[in-house]
Amino acid sequence: MDIKKLTSEVSVTPQVTVADLPTIKEQGFRSIICNRPDGEGADQPTHVEIRKASAKLGLDVAYQPIVAGKVSDQDADDFANLMRELPGPVLAYCRTGTRSATLWSLTQAETRATADILSATKAAGYDMAGVVRRIVNGGKTPTDTGDAKYEVVVVGGGAAGIALAASLKSRKPGLEIAIIDPADIHYYQPGWTMVGGGIFDAEDTVRTMGSLIPKGVHWLKSAVAAFEPKDNAVILDGCRVVKYDRLIVCPGLKLDWNKVEGLVDTLGKNGVTSNYRYDLAPYTWELVSGMREGRAIFTQPPMPIKCAGAPQKALYLSGDAWFRNGALKNIDIQFNNAGGVLFGVKDYVPALEQYITKYGADLNFFHNLVAVDGPAKKAWFDVAKPDTPVERVEMAFDMMHVCPPQTAPDFIRVSPLADAAGWVDVDQATLRHKTYDNIWSLGDVMNAPNAKTAAAARMQAPIVAENVVADIRGSAPVAQYNGYGSCPLTVERGKIVLAEFGYGGTLLPSFPKFLIDGSKPSRMAWLLKEKILPPVYWRAMLKGREWMAKPEKVSAS
């Protein structure tokens, strides 16, 4: 049997036989719904056979036959009634399970987000994109026509999306571009490390979205529900359809706080904080500046995550603050990293290890945070060392800085644009989608094997802009991305190890060694982070001024 769980109360499966019933009973199901009409296949048991055999095992059976491809709204209502009336958990079946999954999806239209429906059914192996179209369009709006049409549609108004739109406008001012993003506020997220270190004010990392949308670019303040790349269409919340000639996808990633049991309930209190949230970064500094003794845990989840150095940046700036105020000798610092190395590019590790030693921090590799009890000041980690059974360990804390697990946004993961891991599937050099020639992606959401940083997006935006304009002119891609990313590791107040690298860990320094030697702590690099990069972000990157970000041209073969 191939039973697929949709929720704790409902699962679906292909055709059930009498021989399957004991297994169904053993797995805890109490009821069965048959959605397959009798006589559909020569090898198919009738629902009466199933019902009789089920009765001997104490299983309830309901017969709701659905002709393939003919699921009506009334069918969905009837299915919902059965789910309410039958003792659960319930197992529904048809020939393949698809009709049962369709019925369940339609019953969830009023109570679940379409992305959640798609996610649950995709995890079970069923593609409900067509059903979701029906839900989001109210059963009426086709995607062969749209409510609006633009030459270029950009999904996402973060660093990547606005920089890309600005770069496109600077190259082709007359281009009709729309940015789709529901947010009112745009954040300079690289600044949150500095907020948590008591250096920046949180308010300095904020601008209104409307003030940053490039002149002449349309802003559609809405969320994306689904993609229909075969129809060159994006479906928005509220059943609107936006058509495009070319699509650029850059909505960032999702911070999956709920993946750690108990974390959401204790964030911002009980000594649990994170620089990955605007409203929590000030709490980090409040905790650090007020702590005089005890244990401080800093966590890092499995990759990929945005700015992989950020979890240890919080450690270094906290350790430096305690070093300066004399409290460090009384504080037990623990760095619990789900990975097996301090930093992924080995050239920068020696300098970082010197600061781990300076602050007396313990490095606990292969430690992945799985649960938190804030009031009890306890955390649990799954320790998964190579070739060793996973062990769960408990650690007490007085303060804990958490880096949350991260995934692609739900509406991306369940879309036809995603790879098997849920990220937008692109060519790592041109950033063009591997399947759809008129789609590109950049920023944190795509699957090129580079570091997910704002510096990477700064380099990617002009590359995608060059290639989109070349495509408009009928040319092949003209620019390529070398995987550049930068991580300014704030090892102490006033000094930074400036890590700059590309694909495969290749070092890609932007400055000569006499100015900034990235392998060593540098005051000049701190000046860059504190004084230069914020205005570069606001006044250059988001305005299409490509300072130190000129695209690398594709080499002639």
From TrEMBL:
Per UniProt, what is one GO molecular function of this protein?
hydrolase activity
Quick check: keyword Ubl conjugation in the entry? no
- Organism source for this protein? Yoonia maricola
User: Where on the tree of life does the source sit, at the highest rank?
Assistant: Bacteria
What this protein needs as a cofactor is: FAD
Q: Which UniProt keywords are given for this protein, alphabetically ordered?
A: FAD, Flavoprotein, Oxidoreductase, Quinone, Transit peptide
InterPro entries linked: BLH_phosphatase-like, FAD/NAD-bd_sf, FAD/NAD-binding_dom, Prot-tyrosine_phosphatase-like, Sulphide_quinone_reductase
Q: Which residues form the Beta-lactamase hydrolase-like protein phosphatase-like domain?
A: 2-110
Q: Protein name, please?
A: Sulfide:quinone oxidoreductase
- Keyword Transmembrane helix part of the UniProt annotation: no
Domain annotation FAD/NAD(P)-binding: ranges: 150-263
Offer one example of a GO biological process linked to this entry: sulfide oxidation, using sulfide:quinone oxidoreductase
